[in-house]
Amino acid sequence: MAQFSRVSGSVGLITLQNPPVNALSAAVRQGIVDTVNKALQEPEVKSVVICGQNKVFCGGADIKSFRGVMTGPPLIPMIHAIEASTKPVVAAIEGIALGGGLELALACHYRISHTKARLGLPEVTLGLLPAAAGSQRLPRLIGITAALDLITTGRHVTAAEALQLGIVDHVTDQNTVDVALKFASSVAGKPLDARRISLYPCPPSDDTDALFEEAMQRVRRSARGAIAPVACVQAVRAAATLPYAQGLEREKELMATLFTSGQARALQYSFFAQRAVGRWSMPSGAQWDTVEPLPVQKTAVIGLGTMGRGIVVALTQAGFSVVAVETHEKQLTQAKQAIEEMLIRGAKRRGVTPEHDTITYSHSMEPVANVDLVIEAVFEDMVLKEKVFQQLSAVCKPGTLLCTNTSGLDIDHLASKTPNPELVVGMHFFAPAHVMKLLEVVYGRQSSPRAVATAMQLGKKMGKVSVAVGNCLGFVGNRMLKPYMNQAFFLLEEGASPELVDQALEEFGFIMGPFRMSDLSGIDVGWRIRKEEGLAVPDQRTGQIPRMQKGCRYSPVGDLICEQGRFGQKTGQGWYRYDKPGGRVARPDPWMQTFLNQYRATHGLVPRRIDPKEVLERCLYALINEGFQTLEEGIAAAPEDIDVIYVFGYSWPQHRGGPMFYADMVGLEKIMDRLEHYHQAHPDVPSLQPCNLLRKLVAIGSPPIHKWSQVMKTLRSQL
Ligand SMILES: CC/C=C/CC(=O)SCCNC(=O)CCNC(=O)[C@H](O)C(C)(C)COP(=O)(O)OP(=O)(O)OC[C@H]1O[C@@H](n2cnc3c(N)ncnc32)[C@H](O)[C@@H]1OP(=O)(O)O
User: Fold this and answer.
1) Does residue 569 share a domain with residue 432?
2) Subunit notes for this chain (predicted)?
3) 644 falls within a domain
4) For the chain, the helix, strand and coil percentages under 3-state DSSP, each to the nearest 5
């Protein structure tokens, strides 16, 4: 809806009304058309202000409506009618002007913004482009380079930057609508042609071809196969090279392709999935809207290795006071310096003053006594963690929440070492913890709903996308990674090279394939865990690590690589070779080829040609199958939880939605058939056997992803 009122006799005020973000639903668009007509027809009205209810201008098109048939007046004619108005129209921007919201403002003759407003064209993040003339107007207003930046990244700008770029005419910290009304009154009757952006020529650049060539290359490099950023460059190019009307036609054409693409569907699903994970629930029925989090102001981080340092930075940047504990004096000094540097760099990037006075460094636990919440981030070793939890239990005030940053150890076991297991939860951060957006909040059998609510809220305040998951080995993310990595190892045994496997998965859209990723994070990390699990241990009789363990196929290739001291980038050699220890550029290593040939010969494995399709199917479908298993067990509450974890923690390409969304797109029946096919070929790999939930979903006709929860409920109630 949009409401019309007349202010001071001669200014028509149009207020968009569609909480919470005044999205341009069919009713709002109809309201704008009607109220603009009214303003134009009423002779007393000499100028017009458009604003949004509740100090929010407009969050753009109603994304929910993209799923159905579009009804109501179309956006473009509405926007053109505003620009063509003979009475000046002023946009009073408070809160946000995003997507169609900013395009609406660009059709107005003047834009006045509150200092705290944020503006942007984020359509690209939804797999679209600004197709209500935004791709044609913005370059005409602010130039090609700046428009390309905003449109291809979708980033939001502050009012100050918008003023500097020329997107808005004036910024105020007063009541924006009052300022706009006064201004509208002052420009009544003034000529408007110079204010109609569609009439502007696109500002020329020195070498338009080179500029677009460079932009296209940059975008293709970072897009990982996403098509919207490429279409955005093409649309801006149309603005720079074609008359406005033809540019609009091109914009429409490009949008038509994007709108119906699976990528747009995936990205829009991902938008809502990110919000859905905030509405967490536990098997007990406790959930986000019924549980009050505990108040947290003072925090502590125990252990200042890479993870601990990142967590201290993230907590400090979120405004918490932090006691940073490291028992080794030398490590404490190094950590302090590294943390200060990270804070300075972060503050510089955000244009604020670094906040280090809120950190207390200590080599003892004493200052932790009065904190509200502790995050333990010591080495991934259960005995060490148990010891730390016992110390914390002795020193902390009653009611302190004890969180562990383990990437997969048993939360229940750790909780059992404290007198208050209900106050123990896992907070699994991803490295680097001050950068990566994902946080898995892991509840154990005894974790109280308040403890979970508190960790979830803390994550939100730290700017993380937090997902509540149940306790099991590896939780959701690392648990699903295991069958994926196993398949990658098996493929090496059967004839693939690390390059072939990585390339297939990187072409799919992962930033790095499993081997380049493992070189980056350190191959020895998994080796240590496998040794602790009793897997990477030579048989006393043969002296070799068995290739069958507990009745299942096991590949020791990663263990054998580690035995050679090849730990990845840090040692300059891993699955690839690097020019020096710590080097970043991975090059295929002839040594690896020889090693794999010898390994296959030793075990009587005849190498065969493996194509990228098999790599994708085996690695991804095994991972997806494990995802279904976590849903079946209730470790993950919903497919959105898994998808958010994979997009934000494991570089799953966002334009493919996440593993479970991808499974829905591929078709559950196909996934099940291919898994069965591979399981027949590899009966000693149980993770290739389709799990119950997948079978059940296929049996009832493969319902779409939003209906899976219902089946999961039925399945659990039958157990
Ligand atoms: C014809 C095609 C034309 C396309 C042009 C477009 O305009 S495409 C849409 C462009 N707009 C956007 O991409 C904005 C998307 N929204 C956001 O980035 C953020 O929601 C926000 C506006 C910055 C607000 O963030 P905040 O953290 O304050 O709140 P939430 O994100 O939790 O949002 C609150 C609820 O509002 C829902 N919502 C937000 N934007 C839209 C939208 N454009 N359409 C529909 N619904 C929207 C959001 O889903 C939240 O509701 P939940 O029920 O909690 O999910």
Assistant:
1) no
2) Monomer.
3) yes
4) 55, 15, 35
